[in-house]
Design goal:
By secondary structure, the chain is α/β, with parallel strands linked by helices. The protein contains 11 helices and 14 strands. The relative contact order is 0.14. Adenosine-5'-diphosphate (ADP) binds near residues 34, 37, 40 and 41. One of its GO terms (molecular function) is ATP hydrolysis activity.
Amino acid sequence: MELFINNVSKQFKDKNAVNDVSLHITSGVWGLLGANGAGKTTLMRMIAGIMEPSDGKIEYDGIPITTLKGKYRDIFGYLPQEFGFYPEFTVKDYLEYVATLKGLTKKDTKKKINELLENLSLENVRNKKINKLSGGMKRRVGIAQALLNDPEVLILDEPTSGLDPGERVRFRKMISEFAKDRIVLISTHIVSDIEYIATKNAIMKNGQIIATGTTDELVQEMNGKVWECEVSTEQLPEYEKKLQIVNLRNEDDGKVTVRYLAEKPFSSESFKVKPRLEDLYLWLFPQETNKEVK
Ligand SMILES: Nc1ncnc2c1ncn2[C@@H]1O[C@H](COP(=O)(O)OP(=O)(O)O)[C@@H](O)[C@H]1O
Ligand SMILES: [Mg+2]
């Protein structure tokens, strides 16, 4: 089971949304990380077969995906980032409808829907209309429809947007179990959503893949660049002005522990800490720092 993306590009008028991307994706959970506008959705739409590359080709087990035709819907499951529902349908009716489109038998449909509603904690709302559901529930219905045909390749574009912390934990657990002997590709700009479940990560910036590897491999680059230092609230503004801060933690003694990224320590009290994927991400996307730090 392998997906080969060979020199794929997508041009929109004068915008090169995806620029000469090559990736060899094998079974496991893959995190596609990148800031908004990096090109993740465009790349995923091409892999999901709903948009043609301007250049390059995509193959699944040696077969160009454009020639898979009907077989394609047996192999792939896709959750788009912008997911249009049929708001007047109930959850169950909607899933039955998608199952018909995907060619499932009546018997398989019933079994599969029951299983998914249970795994995604949606049993209580099975007869509710979709437009009556919360954002997180709608997202879970979207994940359910992508899983209906038990796909070998599951493509989820920002699957965790709108999920609350509990839903995020359940989602990660479900995907980890599902991913055995399958390919799961998850795009996100929230590092913590994939840090612990992704077998591999691909980091995308300006339409290109700028790094791939396991989380451990990727964070190597940040060794010796992540520092922590305890400062008083009076000292804090100076640190905030001069440094790329990735986290602030209030301590019991009224001081603040500052975590920052730098080639060299800013002060003699700073000590080196073990890098995390989020540190690398913010190093690569410094403009995201203000948005991501909570
Ligand atoms: N249909 C389109 N027409 C023109 N430009 C587009 C279209 N789709 C995406 N883009 C542009 O391509 C770039 C990548 O977008 P997108 O793939 O949505 O990135 P991401 O999912 O990482 O946020 C952005 O600059 C976006 O504005
Ligand atoms: Mg997107």
